[in-house]
Amino acid sequence: MEQVLGKEWTISPAGGSTGEAYYAQLEEKRLFLKRNSSPFLAVLSAEGIVPKLVWTKRLENGDVITAQHWLEGRELKPLEMKFDRVAALLSKIHHSTELLHLFMRIEKKPLEPEMILNKLRQSQIEQNQVETNIDVHKAIKYLTEQLPVVQNQRKVVCHCDVNHNNWLLADDNQLYLIDWDNAMIADPAMDIGMLLHKYIPESNWNSWLEKYGVQMDVSLMNRIYWYVIAQSVTFIQWHQKRKEFSQAVKWEETLQSIFVKMHQS
C-alpha cells in the first residue's frame, strides 16, 4: 500500500477474512483501503449504502485499490437489527435498479435455488457424509422436495452476509451495510430469511417485513425457510471441511431448531 499512498502515510491492517483491507492516516486525513474490492463500489457509494468512495487506482499487476472515507462508528449490536432503518436500508438495496443493472452488465449470473441445492449435494458426496449426518440428510431431502416452491422468483442484488457486524453505524448516525465481496443476484428471501432467523423473534416477523415493505404470505414464508435451511447446511459443510467441528455442531443445532419452528407454525 505504501507504493500507492507514499511512505508518509501510516498504514495498518483493518482485519477481515481476506486480509486485504487497511486503515491509512496522514495527519487529519484518514482512509479505508481495500485491494480488489467490489466492482460496483462506486454505485453503492453514490446511493449512500457504503461510506463515500474517494478514489480508485489500478496497479501494474492488475490489482485495484479503492479508498473510502474512514468513518468513526461501530457495528450494530444483535438487538439493534430490529431497527426500522435496517429494514429500510435492506429494502433500498433490494429495490435498487442501478445495482441490478450493473450486476447484469458485469455478467453476474443469478443464483438459482437449484444451483445451491446441487452444490450442497456435491459437497455431501465429497465429504462422504450422506448417511452419517442425519440432520443434513434430512435438510437436503426437504430442500429437494420444496425446490419447485422457490423457483422462478424475482431476483435482486443480495448482500448474502447480513450479519450484524457488517452494519456500520457512523458517529453521525448514518447507517451503512459494508463488505460486499459475496454479493449476488438472488431471491431477496436469501437476505431476509437469515436476518429474521438470527435476529428477529418470529412473533415480530410481520411487523419487520412491513417496515421492509412487504406482507408475509405462504410463498415468502416457504422461501425464507428454504434459504435459511440451505445456508445452515452450507455452514455445516464449510466448518466440517475445515475440521471446525464445534462450529459445525452449532449450525446442526440451528438446523434442528428451524425444523422445530416449522412444525410449530
UniProtKB/TrEMBL annotation:
The question of whether Transferase is a record keyword is answered with yes
Annotated protein name in UniProt: Thiamine kinase-like enzyme
Q: Which domain of life is it from?
A: Bacteria
UniProt GO MF annotations: kinase activity
Q: Which InterPro entries match?
A: Aminoglycoside_PTrfase, CcrZ_PhaseVar_Mediator, Kinase-like_dom_sf
Q: Where is the Aminoglycoside phosphotransferase domain?
A: 14-213
Q: Does the keyword Transferase apply?
A: yes
Q: Which residues form the signal peptide?
A: none
| Keywords annotated in UniProt | Kinase, Transferase
